[in-house]
Amino acid sequence: MSEESSMRKDSTSINDTMEEEVEERDPERNPLNEPLLKRNRTLSSNPLALVGAKVSYIESLDYEYLTGFLYFVGINFLLTFVAAILCVCFAPTAAGPGIPEIKAYLNGVDTPNMYGATTLFVKIIGSIGAVSAGLDLGKEGPLVHIGSCIASLLGQGGPDNYRIKWQWLRYFNNDRDRRDLITCGASSGVCAAFRAPVGGVLFALEEVATWWRSALLWRTFCSTAVVVVVLRATIELCHKGKCGLFGEGGLIMFDVSDVTVRYNVMDIIPVVIIGVLGGVLGSLYNYLLHKVLRVYNLINQKGKMYKLLLSLSVAVFTSVCQYGLPFLAKCTPCDPSFPDVCPTNGRSGNFKQFNCPDGHYNDLATLLLTTNDDAVRNIFSTNTPLEYQPSSILIFFALYCILGLITFGIAVPSGLFLPIILMGSGYGRLLGILMGPHTNIDQGLFAVLGAASLMAGSMRMTVSLCVIFLELTNNLLLLPITMIVLLIAKTVGDSFNPSIYEIILHLKGLPFMDANPEPWMRNLTVGELVDVKPAVVSFTGIEKVANIVNALRHTTHNGFPVMDGGVVPPTGVANEATELHGIILRAHLIQVLKKKWFLKEKRRTEEWEVREKFTWVELAEREGNIEDVAVTKEEMEMFVDLHPLTNTTPFTVLESMSVAKAMVLFRQVGLRHMLVVPKYQGSGEIKDYLYIFPEIQDAKDTRDKNRVSPVVGILTRQDLLPYNILAVFPHLEKSKRK
Amino acid sequence: MSEESSMRKDSTSINDTMEEEVEERDPERNPLNEPLLKRNRTLSSNPLALVGAKVSYIESLDYEYLTGFLYFVGINFLLTFVAAILCVCFAPTAAGPGIPEIKAYLNGVDTPNMYGATTLFVKIIGSIGAVSAGLDLGKEGPLVHIGSCIASLLGQGGPDNYRIKWQWLRYFNNDRDRRDLITCGASSGVCAAFRAPVGGVLFALEEVATWWRSALLWRTFCSTAVVVVVLRATIELCHKGKCGLFGEGGLIMFDVSDVTVRYNVMDIIPVVIIGVLGGVLGSLYNYLLHKVLRVYNLINQKGKMYKLLLSLSVAVFTSVCQYGLPFLAKCTPCDPSFPDVCPTNGRSGNFKQFNCPDGHYNDLATLLLTTNDDAVRNIFSTNTPLEYQPSSILIFFALYCILGLITFGIAVPSGLFLPIILMGSGYGRLLGILMGPHTNIDQGLFAVLGAASLMAGSMRMTVSLCVIFLELTNNLLLLPITMIVLLIAKTVGDSFNPSIYEIILHLKGLPFMDANPEPWMRNLTVGELVDVKPAVVSFTGIEKVANIVNALRHTTHNGFPVMDGGVVPPTGVANEATELHGIILRAHLIQVLKKKWFLKEKRRTEEWEVREKFTWVELAEREGNIEDVAVTKEEMEMFVDLHPLTNTTPFTVLESMSVAKAMVLFRQVGLRHMLVVPKYQGSGEIKDYLYIFPEIQDAKDTRDKNRVSPVVGILTRQDLLPYNILAVFPHLEKSKRK
C-alpha cells in the first residue's frame, strides 16, 4: 500500500498539491457548477489518489462516484428503453437509419409501413431518446427518414386512415411524384442534420436516388433552401441560449476556418496515408459490421424481448464505458493560452474537469462525457496540438470502434454518419499526433481528414461527402486535400467490399437493382429466361369473370397481358391475327370485381360507361385484395370488357434481347413489367389454355405445341435480379468465375 | 471657353490645387510607374483641366492621350485580329463557347470537327488573343471546350490523321467512354476557369450531361481533383509574382470571406428584389441576344471577310469605350482607410489613377482599364461602400450590357460566364448603393448576389451556380441568401423563355433531345409516325450484293433491319414464320463491301470465317463512304451472309406505343435506332419488294397489301424531334395550343 502510494505521489504530485489549494478556495470560484460534479472535484480529483486516504473518506467518495454513475447509467437506460420499446412494439421499421429502405424505394422497391404516421412518430421520439442516451449513433439517418416520412404524408394528404381527400392532392398520387417528394424529404433531412444544403442535394443525388432528372435537382435544391432558411431563422431566435445547445456554432457546425491551411508538396504523403488507411479501415468496418448484423439478426428473430434486451445491454455497456474510461486518463494542466474557459464544469464545451483538480482537465472526459456533436467539435478543434494525450485519443478511438460495431444493429433509430465521423476523427487525430513533427497540417485538420477518409472508405460517396465536409467545416482551402483523401479512400475501399448501404440492402433482402448489369447477363436472352418461368397468364380483351377471379386467386402476378384473337389488322389480310392489346394491372381487375362492372354478353363497352363507373382517383389507387371480393356463381359466368382499363402501351423486348440490355431498359425507364414478344411473325391464335388453373404445367405444354403467341412472357424485377437468375442458370455462375 | 473653364474650376477645384503640388514632388514618389501613364499624370490628370491651358501644352497632352489611345486600340485590334483570323480560316467550330455543342454531343449529336487538334490549337490561341484584347468575354466556355478536346484527343490516341494505334486505346473507342471522357474534360474546364472543383462537377452534371451515372460522378470528381492539385502546385510555384497575374487570390478568385454576413428577416426583401430583377434581366438578355445572334448569323453567312470585319469592329468599339468612358467619371479622393495602395498605376488592382491627380483615383478606369477578372474582383470588393460613384457603376453596367450583347456572336472563342457576371455585378452593386440605408448587406455582397441572379436568370442553373459562387467567394454564410436568389431568378426567368444554351442550341439547328416529351406526344402512336415515313428498307439474312449496294446508294439510313423468311420457330409449327434477326449498321455493310466478303452461293457462314476477315477494332470504326466502294458486275450477283454482323438485340417498341413513351425509352437508354414491331401476330412472309429501288412508293403499296411483317418501321432521333413531328401532323400543333 505504501509502495502504491509513493508511486502515485510521483506521477500525480502536481495534482495533489493543487488539490489542497482547491479545497479551500473552491466554493467562491465555481458557483455555477453542478452540485454532484462539484463535490466530486472538490473532494478529490483522481480516484487513485484515494488509495492512501482514510477509509471513511474513501467510502464517501466512492459513494459520490457511485451516485453519479447510477444517475448517468440509469437515465441513459431509461432513454434507451423508451426508444427501444417504441421501435419494438409499434414501428419496427423505425429502427436503424432508414436510408437503405429509402434508397430501395427510389429504386422501385416499397417496404411496407415505411412512411406511415406511426413510423414518423416513433422515429422522432426514438431518435431523441437514443441520441440523448449517449449511444454511439447519429441523428442524420433518422432525420433523412423523418424528412421522407413527412414528404410522403404531405404528398398523400395525411396518414393512411385519415387522408384528406382534396382534389389537387391527386396530382401527387402517382409513383413519380411520390418518389420526387421522398427524394426532397431525404435531402432536407441531410440538410437539417448537417446544416449543409448543397451537401443534402448531392447526398440525395449520389447515394439515394436511382433516377435523376434535372427538374429533381432544383426541386431538392429548393427544399434544402427552405430548410436552411428556417434553420437560420430558428438559430437567430435561439441566439441568446434560449434553446439549450441548439444553434451552437451557427450555421457551421464544426468550424475549422480559423486555421490557415498551409501545405506543400511533401504533405501529399500524410494525405495519401490518411486516404489509404481510411479506405482499409472503412472496408474493415463494413466487413465486421456485416458479421455483427448477422449475429444481431439471429438474436432479434428470437422475439421482442430479445430485441429489447440487446438494445438495453448495449446502452448499459456504452454508459459504463463512457463513465468509467475517463478515470484511466491523466489530468492535464490548463494552458493559459487556451481560448476557452478551462477547466469547465456543468456545461457543454471543451476541457471537462471531471475528476481533476482545478486548473486541470480530463481530456478523455472532454471527449466522452458530452454530446456526440460536441465530441466531434472538440476533436476537430484546431491550433491545439497539446490538448489531447495520445493515450486518450487511442482509448477514444478503440471505444468508438467497438461501440460503432455493436450499436448500429439495435432496435432504436440510428444513423451511421456520426459513429463513422467519431471513429475517423479519432484515428485522424491520432495520426496527426504521430506525424506532428513531419507535416504542416494541423491536428484538427488531420481529424477532419480522418473522418472524411473513413466515411469514404465505408460509404463510398465522393462529391456529396466533399461538400458536406466543406459545409461542416467552412474551410475552402482544405478542399483539394479532402478531394484526394476521399478519392483514395473510396478506391481502396471499393477493392475490398461494397459500400455499407449495399451490404445492409443485401442483408435486408431488398431486391435492389444495380445500375450496371453483370457481364454474364450478356450471354443469356430474355427468351431463355422466360422459358424457365411458368407460362404467362393472359386474358382476352373481353374475359369471363370466372377466369379473372381464378387468375387473381391462383397467382400473385401484378400484371396480365391482354390479347385479342381473330383480329383483322388494318394493313394486312391475315384475318386470323392475334393482337397484343396491352397489359392490365391486378389493382384494376380488383376494382372491376369490387364494382361488379360485369356484362351479360360479350361486347365492347363505350367510353362513357367507363367514365361513369371509375374515377381518375380510384384508378390511381394501388391497393385491394382479391380475398375481399365476393362474386356470386351467376356473376362468374358473366364477362368483363378489359379493353378500356388496359395499358395499351407496354414496354416490350424481343425474345432475342440479352438480359443485360433488358435490365438496362427496365432500370433506366423504371418499369414494373416488361413484356417479351416473339421475334417470329407467324399465324397465332389464342386458346382457352391460357387460364386453366392450377394445371399450369399443362398450359405450358399446350402453349409449346401451338403457334406463335404475340406475348412470349412477362418479366418483373425479381426475374432480372442476378441471384435469382443464377439460381436457375447455375452454369452462368461458372462463366462468371472464369 | 472662359465659361467652360470656370465651370470646370468649380467642379474640380480640389484637383487643380492637388495637381500643382504633385508636379514638383512626383519624380521621387513614383519611380515605378510606366513612362506613358506617368507623364500623363505628372503633366495633368484631368483632360478637362487642359481647356484653360496654353495651346502648345494642350497639343502635347492631347498627343499623349492620343498615343495611349492608339497603343491601346491598336494592340487590342491586333490581338482580336489574330484570334478572329484563326477562327475564320482554320477552325470555325472554335468560335463561341463550345458548350452548346458539347451538350449536344453528350445528348447524342456529333458536330463535325468539334474535337480535333486544329480546333484545340485555335481555341487556345484564339482564347488568349480574345481575352487579352479586353473583349467582353470569358475564358470559361473556351476552357470547357479545350478540356473536352484534350479529353477526346487523349481518348482516341491523338489527332485523326496521326493516331497512335496502341492496343489498349481501343477500350476507349466506344461512344460511352468518349462521352465520359468529354464530360470529364468539360468539368475540368470549369474547374480550371473558376478554381471550383465541386462546381465543375456539378456544372457537368446539371448543364452539360444528358446521361448521368454514379460512376461518372466520381470520375469527373477525380479529374477536377487532379486539376485543382495542379492549379494549387502551379500557384505555389508562381507565388512570388513570377507568372504575372496568374495565381492572384490563391485558390479563391473573388474572396469576400472577410465580411461577416449579417442579415435579419427584413433583409429578405432586397434578396427577393435581386432575385426577381435578375430573372427579368436574365430573360431579357436571352431575348435580346437571340435577336442579335440572328442578325449576326445573316452577316456571318455573307463570307469570311464579313465575319472578320464584324469581329474587328466590335473590338475597336470595345477599346474605344473602355478608353474613352473613364474621362466621364469624376476623380475620387483616396481614403487613407483603404487597405490597398491608392492610387495605383502601371499594375493590376484597385484605385486606378488614370487621369486623376495624386491622391485621387478614377473609379471607372478602375473597372474598365483592367482585366475582366480584376474588374469582377474590384466590383465584388467588400467593406468599401464609398469606393464607386453610382454614376460610374451605371456607366459600367450600361456599357457591359451593350458589349455583352454584341460581343458573344463574333468569330472568336468566347465564354458567357464572365460577361454575365460583369453585368450582374454592376446591377447588383448599383442596387446595393440604392438600398444602402435600408439593409445590413454589404455592397460587395450585393454585387455577388446580382451576378448570381443574372446567371440564374440567363443560364437557369441552380446547384452548380450556387457551388461555383461559393467556391469563387469563399463565404459559406452567404449560402442561404444565394440559394434563394438563384431559385427566384431561375423561376422568374423560366416563365419568360428557355435558357441561353437552349436558345443557342436551337439557333444552331442541333437536334437536341429534351428530357421530357411534349404533352401532345401522348396522343400519337409510333405506328402512325412510321406510316407517314417511306417504307422501311430491310435485308434478308443472306442478301444479294446488288441489293445492299442499291440500298446504301439510294438511302442515307444508318441502320437496316435484317429478316429471315420461312423459318421454323423452335416453339411452334408455323413453318412459314418470318424471323426478325436484328439490325445491321451502314458502317458494317460498307466494311463488308470494302473487304469483298462475298459468297458465291446462299449459305450461312461459320464464326471463324468472320473472325478471319474482321477485327474487333475495324468493327468499332464508324466511318466509310459508299462512294469509295467499287463492286464489279459479277460481284453484284453474289451474296453476303449478314447474320454474323447483325446486332441481334435491337430495342423495339410495339406500334401501339405512344410517341411520348418511345421518346423516353429512346433518350433514357441512349439509342440511335428503334425498331417498331407489330402488335399483331399473323403469318408473315418476306418478299423481294423490300429493296426495289428507287421505286419506294411501289414498295410501300406492296407492303400494305401483304401480311404482317415482323418490322413495321424504324425510328431515329430526327423522327422523334417535336418540330419534325409537327411538320407532318400539324393538327397536333392545334391541340398543343389549346
From TrEMBL, chains A, B:
GO cellular component: chloride channel complex
SUPFAM superfamilies listed in its UniProt record: CBS-domain pair (SSF54631), Clc chloride channel (SSF81340)
Top-level lineage group: Eukaryota
Subcellular localization, as worded in the UniProt entry: Membrane
Pfam families according to UniProt: Voltage_CLC
Molecular functions per Gene Ontology: chloride channel activity
Membrane spanning residue stretches: 69-94, 114-135, 216-235, 268-288, 308-329, 393-423, 476-493
Primary location: membrane
Membrane topology: Multi-pass membrane protein
Keywords for the protein's UniProt record, in alphabetical order: CBS domain, Chloride, Chloride channel, Ion channel, Ion transport, Membrane, Repeat, Transmembrane, Transmembrane helix, Transport
Start-end of Basic and acidic residues biased regions: 1-11
UniProt region (Disordered), positions on chain: 1-37
Name listed for the protein in its UniProt record: Chloride channel protein
Species annotation: Flemingia macrophylla
Lineage: Eukaryota, Viridiplantae, Streptophyta, Embryophyta, Tracheophyta
